[in-house]
């Protein structure tokens, strides 16, 4: 069942829309959770977000995707968007005046309560709690950098937070944006058919998920743990919990310590 506002219902949406057509402005979705992507490569969207659950949710109007093509705000005949770094050095930097124009245009089309985030290896590390927080906002404006990144003055002027996908350097922010949007959109009401799967999956209770099995009962001489075939729901839940704890303790001591500390705080 969908918790989405009624005005976003399927009847209002043409069912035959193709992935990129899903992204054009649709006034009927004015209140749907909105992702705006400022990018030099709008053709990279919706990308994988147009597939499977996120794609179906886009089609159903549970969220909307709006690309802001940075090139259109560029300078001069060639629509230049970048220039050499002040102080010298390799590469190019995205110009503040160009990004400023793109943002002014973008922000007119989204709730002022939607944060603006710059995808950047220097930012706070994206995780499930950031995804949860974003899913509670009206949407987000994501700035995808390229080259050596964005002029600092844009970040200072608009008070833009930086967010990182991890400790590695990508060529541009588009892949990071898609990963973050995938993690966020699946938390929006009505996107996942079975809400229980959110409650049990990795990170939802501060633990990694237990191992999963399915048929056949035996494969390559390996059997499904008998408790999972026992039909005893209490025993199954106990086994899953013990496995989740064991895996978290072994693989992620940081998560395990936080989990234990939170438990201690509760008692
Ligand atoms: C080549 S990178 C620039 C890296 C920058 N010169 C630095 O050393 O921090 C170009 C763009 O890719 C994006 N990007 C790269 N790595 C990222 C990461 N780990 N998380 C999010 N975005 C990233 C950012 O938008 C960045 O502006």
Automatic annotation (TrEMBL):
UniProt-annotated location(s): Cytoplasm
The keyword Cytoplasm appears for this protein: yes
Residues holding S-adenosyl-L-methionine: 145, 165-170
Main location (coarse class): cytoplasm
UniProt keyword annotations, A-Z: Cytoplasm, Methyltransferase, S-adenosyl-L-methionine, Transferase, tRNA processing
GO cellular component: cytosol
Limits of the tRNA methyltransferase TRMD/TRM10-type domain: 36-257
Residues forming coiled coils: none
Enzyme class of the recorded protein, top EC level: transferase
The keyword tRNA processing appears for this protein: yes
Gene Ontology molecular-function annotations: tRNA (guanine(37)-N1)-methyltransferase activity
Recorded superkingdom: Bacteria
Annotated catalysed reactions: guanosine(37) in tRNA + S-adenosyl-L-methionine = N(1)-methylguanosine(37) in tRNA + S-adenosyl-L-homocysteine + H(+)
GO BP of this protein: tRNA N1-guanine methylation
Enzyme nomenclature, EC number: 2.1.1.228
Region ranges (Disordered): 1-21
Pfam families, per database record: tRNA_m1G_MT (PF01746)
PANTHER family, per the entry: TRNA (GUANINE-N(1)-)-METHYLTRANSFERASE
Function according to Swiss-Prot or TrEMBL: Specifically methylates guanosine-37 in various tRNAs.
Quaternary context: Homodimer.
Family stated for the protein in its record: Belongs to the RNA methyltransferase TrmD family.
Protein's recorded name: tRNA (guanine-N(1)-)-methyltransferase
Species assigned in the record: Salipiger abyssi
């Amino acid at each position: 069942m969908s918790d989405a506002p009624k005005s976003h219902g399927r009847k209002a949406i043409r069912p035959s829309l193709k992935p990129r057509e899903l992204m054009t402005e649709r006034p009927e979705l004015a209140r749907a959770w909105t992702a705006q992507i400022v990018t030099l490569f709008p053709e990279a969207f919706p990308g994988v977000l147009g597939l499977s659950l996120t794609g179906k949710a886009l089609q159903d109007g549970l969220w909307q995707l709006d690309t802001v093509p940075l090139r259109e705000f560029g300078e001069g005949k060639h629509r230049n968007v970048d220039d050499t770094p002040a102080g010298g050095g390799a590469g190019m930097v995205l110009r503040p005046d160009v990004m400023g124009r793109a943002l002014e245009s973008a922000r007119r089309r989204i709730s002022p309560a939607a944060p603006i985030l710059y995808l950047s290896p220097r930012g706070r590390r994206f995780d499930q709690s950031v995804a949860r927080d974003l899913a509670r906002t009206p949407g987000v404006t994501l700035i995808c950098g390229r080259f050596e990144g964005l002029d600092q003055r844009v970040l200072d002027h608009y008070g833009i937070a930086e967010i990182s996908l991890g400790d590695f350097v990508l060529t541009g922010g588009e892949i990071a944006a898609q990963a973050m949007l995938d993690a966020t959109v699946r938390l929006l009401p009505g996107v996942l058919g079975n809400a229980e799967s959110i409650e049990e999956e990795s990170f939802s209770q501060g633990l990694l998920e237990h191992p999963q099995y399915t048929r056949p009962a035996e494969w390559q001489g390996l059997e499904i743990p008998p408790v999972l075939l026992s039909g005893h729901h209490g025993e199954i839940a106990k086994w899953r919990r013990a496995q989740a704890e064991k895996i978290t303790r072994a693989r992620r001591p940081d998560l395990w310590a936080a989990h234990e500390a939170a438990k201690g705080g509760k008692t």
